[in-house]
Specification:
Layout lengths: L5 E6 L5 H12 L2 E3 L2 H10 L3 H7 L22 H19 L2 E4 L3 H4 L6 E7 L2 H10 L5 H22 L12 E4 H4 L1 H14 L2
Parallel strand pairs: 1-3, 1-4, 2-3, 4-5
Helix pairs in contact: 1-9, 2-4, 6-7
């Protein structure tokens, strides 16, 4: 088996994907990129951070409208410019180093480019509800709406920009339930899989 160079992590909202990504990176001695990709995308594209945060993960389909990051013209939607910027950042990162990337269709972007382990982190509604309230300080009465909103946003974005289905087992190499296994065990399983690929 060829060595796995990059771990990509898709995740349900409040299932701990970002935390698990950081733990995996620590175990492997590499960097984890999550929200940092927004900062880098702002730098390479010239699009203000506020605009990227506002439009990031909005639905678009670059498969139907391939664009170049450096294309000029106001007719190119900002969502497509952001996707192009994030794509460029991700490709630049993996060209320089092994790493862990959370979200942003990284599994699709890196397909056939480098050896990846594509992971999806899920958890029961109850566990995610608990995480939302305890780790994100979301009031109980807002939790259900927030979980549905962000899951739908991620699913719509992923499904529109890849030829796979967000959260479906066949779309990933590995699916882990963080509610049952815990963050540490999920991270250990992922890290050991990467180490065994050497």
């Amino acid at each position: 088996m060829a060595k796995i160079k990059v771990v990509t992590i898709g995740r349900h909202y409040c299932a701990g994907g970002s935390s698990i990504g950081k733990l995996v990176a620590e175990k492997l001695g590499v960097k984890c990129y999550d929200r940092e990709i927004i900062d880098m995308s702002a730098q390479v594209s010239g699009i203000p951070m506020t605009e990227i945060k506002k439009y990031e993960e909005a639905v678009l389909n670059p498969l139907k409208t391939p664009i170049n990051l450096f294309s000029k013209g106001k007719d190119i939607p900002i969502t497509e410019r952001i996707f192009a910027a994030e794509t460029q950042v991700i490709l630049d990162l993996v060209a320089k180093e092994d790493c862990v990337i959370v979200g942003r269709c990284a599994d699709f972007i890196l397909k056939n480019r480098v050896k990846t382990l594509n992971v999806f982190i899920n958890a029961s509604y109850e566990k995610r509800q608990q995480c939302a309230m305890e780790e994100h300080n979301i009031p109980y009465e807002e939790v259900e709406a927030r979980l549905k909103k962000y899951d739908k946003k991620r699913a719509d974005y992923y499904n529109a920009n890849t030829n796979k289905k967000w959260g479906e087992m066949s779309s990933y190499d590995m699916c882990l339930d963080s509610g049952k296994l815990g963050y540490e065990m999920c991270a250990e399983i992922i890290a050991q899989t990467v180490k065994m690929s050497k």
